[in-house]
Predict the 3D structure of the following.
Amino acid sequence: MSFIQSSPLVTLGRASIQRGVTALQDVITQEWLRSNPGDSKLIDRGAMAGLETAINMKKQISDDARQVVLIMVGLPARGKSLIAGKVKRYLRWTSVKAEVFNVGKYRRNDNPHPDAKFFDVNNAEGEKARRAAAEAAVADMLNWFKDRNNKVAILDATNSTKSRRKWIYEKITEAKLLHLFVESKCDDENLIMQNILEVKTTSPDYVGQDPEEAARDFRDRIKNYERVYQTIDESEKHLTYVKITNIGHQVTINQVQDYLQSRLVYYLTNLHIKPRSIWLSRHGESEYNLEGKIGGDANLSERGQRYAKLLPELVRRSGLPKDAPLTIWTSTLKRTGQTAKYLEKELGWEKLEWKALDELDSGVCDGMTYAEIARDFPEDFQLRDNDKFNYRYRGGESYRDVVIRLEPIIMELERSENVMIITHQAVVRCIYAYFMDIDQSQSPWMEVPLHTLMKLTPKAYGTVVEKFKADIPAVSTWRPQGSTAKHHDSIVDGPALELPGELKNGNAAASASTQKVVDGTTEIVREKGQTLM
């Protein structure tokens, strides 16, 4: 079952889409309960809070599922690369193999920093080079699909003319692949200008160039594309496409028939490209953390309570614009609510509890230390070390299960603006892995220290991460592979972590300013170097 009726052209507003999704959630949840009565616990944990989770429970993508090419369409500064990157991250996060083939990257192999004249329709040499880049990208994409485990390729380019789209459609059809054109349209001048200002500082085409000159050149490039741009219309009604207008205010869907296509459409209808940030924090140190126990519903320790009191100041100094709306999301467990207490009390922000944000269920091991688990369940301890993402505690959950129940959280995050999430170690790892495109085999081993606030800001070519560590000691609950230690006291006894913006006595101390850009991923890590006053 897909969430949308295929074949006819359908145009929906955002409210209509949400009403339809909500209605279908109830239907599919009841269907799941009738056919899987023994799994009602999953409903209680919030695993069925969203349509996509229910579909995944009923129908996983099999090895012989049809392969799909998602083709971006639109003028520059319309969020195409941002959407392409998000789709890739989402699919990989849900264990679907996906890759972006960015035509601009192929073009930069021969011309790293082209000016606007290169994109002039009357520039024959420029047209020839752009065509060659598109052909190379499509050739590599088709070769990538020879591995049947590879499921979704995203062709990221303007693809702004009917003739270019016809050529792409013919190549894809000849290869017996499914297609989904995604056109991003925008006539909101303020939003377009925001995108231009971002591109001038993050686009690989303008690395090392004067920002103002880059912005002028980019505007000239847009004008060149506007001269030849052709929107998808009735003459292309044979195409399967989604047309997103003004960041999802209106969505037009045509000829969607396949399960994987429908899954992509559902995700796309939840996206927006407005500037926003997401704040992530674990709860403050808990009594169970001090005892080295996992799970449970413990209260905060004295140091955890101090972190909760300092958190409003930490958030303010992290760069939240004055009077900007921010919603707090917590789990249903006491330690996250206690951590959010002063954010509600002092700043008056709305707080929402999500069962889906609860910590990974450790089943029969709940309330035990790792040493006790290794003693009582030695085989299980070793199995979890060997494959931490897929290992499921007896009577509990695996990291894969957590990802499944977090899908509705991700959907809600994608359609929200500024949000702060206070949750647990495993859940923070899964959410962070989504935004940073971290492989699932690695995400369960990430170190996520207590008393540290992370601010994630999605950009067109990556996600900027800023970390702020409160000067309040806490145990380290990170367990290296093979270790049975109760906990590690490196944060208590050792030097402060090398994280940006450490808050000391109400002031944020300066740290070394670095930036790491990993080519081919969406990861940009920027450490804040200035003192926050």
